Amino acid sequence: QVQLVESGGGLVQAGGSLRLSCAASGRTFSRNDMGWFRQAPGKEREFVARISWSGSSTYYPDSVKGRFTISRDNAKNTVYLQMNSLKPEDTAVYYCAAASANRQFVYWGQGTQVTVSS
After folding, report:
1. Angle CA(117)–CA(38)–CA(78) in degrees, nearest 5?
2. Alpha-carbon span 4 to 10, nearest angstrom
3. pLDDT for 55-111, tens place per residue?
């Protein structure tokens, strides 16, 4: 059974930093893209970051580019999201996701809450 378990969320002041982790179990994702998404109350789920299986390519929307960094440790089957210069608008539940071989995200974690106070 595939499981993605996020951790590292919490409450932080604006300008602060958090590091999210996502540990996968049940199968290896060392040959799959991984990503992070977020969803704020009353809003659609939003793409936050994506990393290729090798870690050589990363993708971000403009809203987080330069502030967030996605990385992975394939030996640990874990993906990370370093979030710096956090803003109140970054407040959301953050979800880890793993892509299938066709690069579509099909596996999802349960989410971790990130709250940024002004």
Report:
1. 105
2. 18
3. 999 999 999 999 999 999 999 999 999 999 999 999 999 999 999 988 899 999 999
